[in-house]
Amino acid sequence: MKEELIVSGRMNYKVDPVLHIWGWEIPVYLFLGGLAAGILFFAALYYLRGKEKEYQSAVKWAPMFTPFFLIIGLGALFLDLHHKPYFWRLYTTIKLQSPMSWGAWTLMVVTPLSIIWSATYVRELFPKWDWKFKRIYDLEVFFTKNRTSLAWIMIVFAVILGIYTGILLSAFNARPLWNTSILGPLFLVSGLSAGAALIMVMSTNPSERKRFGQIDLMLIAIELFLIIHMFMGFNASSQVQIEAAALFLGGPYTLPFWIFVVFLGMVVPAFLEFWELRGNHIPAYIPAVLIISGNVMLRFIIVYAGQASRYLY
Amino acid sequence: MRYAMAVDTKKCVGCSDCVVACQTENNVPIGYCRDWIVEVTDGTYPQLELEIRSERCNHCANAPCVRCCPTGASHYADGGIVLVTEDMCIGCGACIASCPYDARYPHPDGYADKCTFCIHRVEKGQKPACVEVCPTKCLYFGDLDDPNSDVSKVLKKRKYKTLIPEAGTKPQLYFLI
Which SS3 state, helix, strand or coil, does residue A132 take? Predict the structure, then answer.
């Protein structure tokens, strides 16, 4: 049998024997970013469709969490940096070819936007709230008047944020598993589905719950389609991508991926949603928790497995 | 000007002198290396072939690390040498993940570090440290645009290959075979 044995004298920290430059911080950020993008997308969407009164959780309550999600996510990103005192260098340049650069700028737009959006609803949701300064009241009046424009900006940037979490990884052709353009749409849809799941849990209005149950069902179907498509693409591609797919088709990531991400995170909640839509009662938190944990697992597995996939030469 | 290096795999014995010279010249922190030796055994026993390569950053003409760097710290210097400006680097790791040759590593001080083709020596007209010390003279360095440079002359005479050309990086480290 023809064999090839490669011995390298290199043992650089975080690079050898297998790349592990990115730890838990990146998947945590990718998850929180995607979740925030999902919530903000639905908040803007249903505001623009005039459902502010009917879908209160989507438009008003859930967005209250997004500044926290984004700030915790940004905190995780900051922890990941190895040269922390220089983080501000991200904001002295715009490099269009670098997804991380325009992602950093997107966050710079989305985070304040999420704070403004939530702030315009704070006094409505918490009547005793006092902004203390007149200037803030003036700003509140201004932004409340311009909510429609805010919603349009937010819907666009939410999509960019959601898709960027995937494109960040897909831009690396050195890691064949990440190097697929499906990853952008997949992470966007999965972020939307996590957002919809959270809104569904928070909602007390049956029609809103039903709508977000339907949305989740549809998003899971799209996710499954994208995942199948991704593996078909890998298996029809070059040897390195066939090997990348093999990590999930018999390789070390097979069980975690198909059980925790696909079965428990997509198939089971889809079945539960379907069951519920048929008129049976299922507590909303069960499918929601499954969807959200599947979402977290998806990011962890893709980030870790991607670093294990490489060119051998 | 286009700096490049050629490595004669027929002459390299894998002594690692280039590795140690680099570590000394560039104050590479202990436990890390900017260049390294790879030994590839190929074939069916007893017909085995051994290839020994001294590897380092390929100073790609289409470098993914430069493309994905969010701050512009990774850049092309004169002659196409790929460099990192330390106080512009945030240590995000994108360039490290983007390199198909895994030529970069996170320096303990935080920034991404790698081979510089010893630009501080080259600017003075000297050869990179690894080339200078190689006991079998298997490393050739120079300007590809100058037909009389060591590297141009040897690439004219000999057959060569580059590593993972299919990654589209246009590597500038040539292996004589």
Answer: coil
For the whole model, what pTM was predicted? 0.94
pLDDT of B87-115, one tens digit each?
A: 999 999 999 999 999 999 999 999 999 99
CATH topology of domain B3-176: Alpha-Beta Plaits (3.30.70)
Per-residue pLDDT tens digits for A19-59: 999 999 999 999 999 999 999 999 999 999 999 999 999 99
**CATH number of the domain residue A294 falls in:** 1.20.1630.10
Q: Is residue A204 part of a domain?
A: yes
Please report, for residues A104, B55, B130, B138, B173, the alpha-carbon distance to residue B5 in angstroms, rounded to integers and kept in the order given.
Answer: 36, 10, 11, 10, 5
A11 falls within a domain: no
Complex prediction ipTM = 0.92
Instruction: Locate the domains of chain B by residue range.
Output: 3-176
Residues 58-87 of A with CB under 8 A from B: 80-84, 86-87
Please answer whether residues A232 and A242 qualify as being in contact, where contact means their C-beta atoms are separated by less than 8 angstroms.
no
Domain that holds residue A194: 25-308
Choose, out of A21, A78, A87, A303, the residue to mutate when testing the contact with B (most B CBs < 10 Å).
A21
- Using DSSP, state whether A8 is helix, strand or coil: strand
Mutate to test the interface with A, among B66, B96, B170 (most CBs of A within 10 A): B96
CA of A37: how far to CAs of A55, A62, A72, A270, A271, in Å?
18, 11, 14, 21, 25
